[in-house]
Design brief:
By secondary structure, this protein is an alpha+beta fold. 24% of the residues lie in helices and 41% in strands. The protein has one helix and six strands, in the order αββββββ. The strands form two sheets. A three-stranded antiparallel sheet has the order 1-2-5, with no helix packed on it. The protein starts with 22 loop residues before the first helix and ends with a strand.
Length: 139
């Protein structure tokens, strides 16, 4: 019942319980939420591809043993580990007793296996005393 001399109220008093949302404001809020979620998903996808690109396909190896065959030749036994379809190369360096580099070469590994054992021949300019694996890279 309305008090004497006042009009009956037609709803909640204005400004007392906050603003009511219009349909446009509700749609704007939904669009902001959807946009935020899509932005986070996009950042995740870009991050994943970036991580995969940086890490890429791994090719690694180690020199199992080497043998100085002559004053200008060294044979090295390499064990290469890689993804099955990966192609790449490993770089070997040979040094003389003085520490001077006497040989360097890249050896390709294109086999469709994940582990490759191979004996490679490294030509040198003088007698070598060591063989060192400098690194492996994928194509």
């Amino acid at each position: 019942m309305a008090a004497v001399g006042t009009k009956p109220s037609e709803g909640l008093p204005q400004g007392r319980y906050g603003r009511s949302r219009t349909a446009d404001e509700a749609a704007d809020r939904k669009l902001k939420i959807v946009g935020s979620v899509l932005g986070v998903v996009l950042l995740g996808v870009v991050g994943w591809f970036g991580y995969d690109y940086i890490n890429g396909t791994k090719v690694s190896a180690e020199v199992i043993k080497f043998d100085v065959v002559s004053a200008d030749t060294v044979k090295a036994h390499l064990e290469v580990r890689k993804d099955t379809g990966a192609k790449g190369y490993c770089t070997l360096r040979s040094q003389a007793e003085s520490g001077a580099e006497v040989g360097r070469a890249d050896f390709r590994f294109d086999q469709r296996e994940d582990r490759v054992d191979k004996v490679v021949t490294l030509r040198t300019t003088s007698r070598a005393t060591t063989v060192e694996l400098l690194g492996c890279h994928s194509d």
